[in-house]
Amino acid sequence: MKRFAVFGHPVSHSLSPCIHAAFAAQCGIALEYTAIDAPPERFAQAVEAFARNGGAGANVTLPHKGAAAALCTAVSERARRAGAVNTLIRVNDGWHGDNTDGTGLVRDLVARHGLDLRGRRTLLLGAGGATRGVVPALIDAGIGELVVANRTRANADTLVAAVAGEHAARTCELAELPSLGAFDLVINATSAARADGLPVLPASLARASTAAVDLGYGAAAAPFLAWARDAGIEARVDGLGMLVEQAAESVLCWHGVRPDTGPVYAALRGACPQPAADR
Ligand code: NDP
Q1: Which atom in ligand 1 lies closest to the alpha carbon of residue 241?
Q2: Is there an atom of ligand 1 within 6 Å of 87 CB?
Q3: Residue 6's closest CA among 66, 65, 53?
Q4: Which of 7, 60, 62 to mutate to test the pocket of ligand 1 (most atoms within 8 A of CB)?
Q5: Which residues carry out catalysis?
Q6: pLDDT by residue for the chain (279 residues), tens digit each?
Q7: Model-level pTM?
Q8: Is 172 a pocket residue for ligand 1 (Cβ < 6 Å)?
Q9: Pocket mutation for ligand 1, best pick of 153, 172, 191 (most atoms within 8 Å of C-beta)
Q10: Own/partner pairs for 209-212, CB < 8 Å, 24+ apart?
Q11: Whose CA is closest to 6, among 53, 52, 54, 46?
């Protein structure tokens, strides 16, 4: 039986073992998929120990996506553009890395939620590993001007310089948000709700046609989706669909087959209703 895992810190909350067990059953693939908690200073060691014990592939989540890229002998084009890896594939000469976050997000927004991303003036809140993964895919999907706002401005500057290429993109401080006007797409890619809480967001960022997306799900998505509801935004999406889609894309990397995400998403949605779904 092939061994797979998700590495994170913390990781006990992860739905990935459940999602990958469902995909494996659907595709008739025999595998074991576990969650491995590794603090940053032990991440590389933990991944090598996993390889020695027959690890064939892994997902990587917060806060290890940059470190995962650094230990790969080769990375895909989309992982190279992102400078971050969320999928490890064991090959003869070591680990190859890919990044399925951006593809997962765009597939969820466009195919599941029917959003046309083309030309949308986009605000991304946060400049961590998730933002790195999704910016290239959003640009490829045709978004308009991109503004990345982050608590630590320097992290946003580094990210935009590395990831946005020739696209019209700029950064700002969170304190500048009231002066930016309205956006067509506002994405919360911070982990703030798990820490000190969501920064104060002005209602002026929204118009009725704006779409609001939180990459988190469950309680982590609740404050941002409540802000979006109170700002009058109808199109509100949490990160559950992205989670399922990026996992399916990882299955394609490992096994060469793309599972049907519909039933797995429906089952998880039943167990994890979207917060602030009411008006
Ligand atoms: P990182 O740790 O790499 O980055 C965290 C980001 O949040 C940084 O920009 C950080 O700012 C910011 N931040 C943290 N605390 C606060 C705060 N109190 N106020 C304002 N900003 C804050 O995390 P990731 O980028 O990997 O993940 C971000 C979110 O996206 C998480 O909720 C994660 O669960 C979710 N995610 C969901 C996925 C899905 O499939 N649905 C996939 C990947 C991620 P600073 O630079 O100043 O530290």
Answers
A1: 41
A2: no
A3: 65
A4: 62
A5: 65
A6: 899 999 999 999 899 999 999 999 999 999 999 999 999 999 999 999 999 999 999 999 989 999 999 999 999 999 999 999 999 999 998 999 999 999 999 999 999 999 999 999 999 999 999 999 999 999 999 999 999 999 999 999 999 999 999 999 999 999 999 999 999 999 999 999 877 789 999 999 999 999 999 999 999 999 999 999 999 999 999 999 999 999 999 999 999 999 999 999 999 998 888 887 654
A7: 0.96
A8: no
A9: 191
A10: 209/184, 209/235, 210/182, 210/183, 210/184, 210/185, 210/186, 210/235, 211/109, 211/113, 211/115, 211/120, 211/184, 211/185, 211/186, 211/235, 211/236, 211/237, 212/186, 212/187, 212/188, 212/236, 212/237
A11: 46
Token representation of residue 125: 């809140």
